[in-house]
Specification:
Helix content is 68%, strand content 7%. It has 165 residues and is mostly helical. Strands 1-2 form a two-stranded antiparallel ribbon. The protein starts with 6 loop residues before the first strand and ends with a helix.
């Protein structure tokens, strides 16, 4: 039976357990978003603003109006993306604005902890791949690599670690 906060009660013998409904929906939505952004980033080296708005705006509205999340938690979840946007501005787009906007959407959907963990994992994966490209002389020091595929891989790693697969 579901209560008004979206929890389902499951009975196992005498014990009653509550599980949050819809927790998997966040992963499904962000996975679709990341696949679309990864394809666009790899093909065109840019992420259209339409994709960011189509996914980000409804998620933001849901977080503001349809969730019991605190305002401070919502602001914290935006910080990694804001940091990347500032970094993009300061480095004259060495890391693109699209990457910062994608991290903003991840933060809105998944929360601060998963966002920072996925960002860290994505940075580590991209560093390993970049080093491999340099060692095997397939790329130079100024070669530009799309970051969203690495961010997607980092998010996948976090999903696997979190679910214990």
């Amino acid at each position: 039976m579901a209560d008004r906060r979206g929890y389902i009660e499951k009975e196992y013998g005498e014990e009653v357990r509550k599980e949050k409904m819809g927790i998997e929906w966040k992963w499904i939505i962000i996975s679709i978003f990341m696949v679309v952004c990864t394809v666009m980033d790899m093909r065109k080296k840019e992420i259209p603003a339409v994709i960011i708005v189509l996914f980000g705006l409804p998620l933001l509205c849901h977080m503001i109006f349809g969730n019991e999340r605190q305002w401070i938690g919502l602001l914290y979840s935006l910080m990694p993306g804001m940091f990347l946007l500032m970094l993009s501005y300061c480095t004259k787009e060495s890391i693109g604005y699209g990457d910062g906007l994608v991290v903003l959407v991840i933060g809105i959907c998944m929360g601060t902890g998963i966002c920072i963990a996925a960002l860290a994992a994505g940075l580590m994966i991209s560093a390993v791949c970049g080093m491999a490209l340099l060692v095997f002389r397939k790329a130079g020091g100024k070669t530009r690599m799309p970051f969203v595929p690495f961010l997607s891989a980092g998010l996948g790693v976090i999903f696997i670690v979190q679910k214990g697969i």
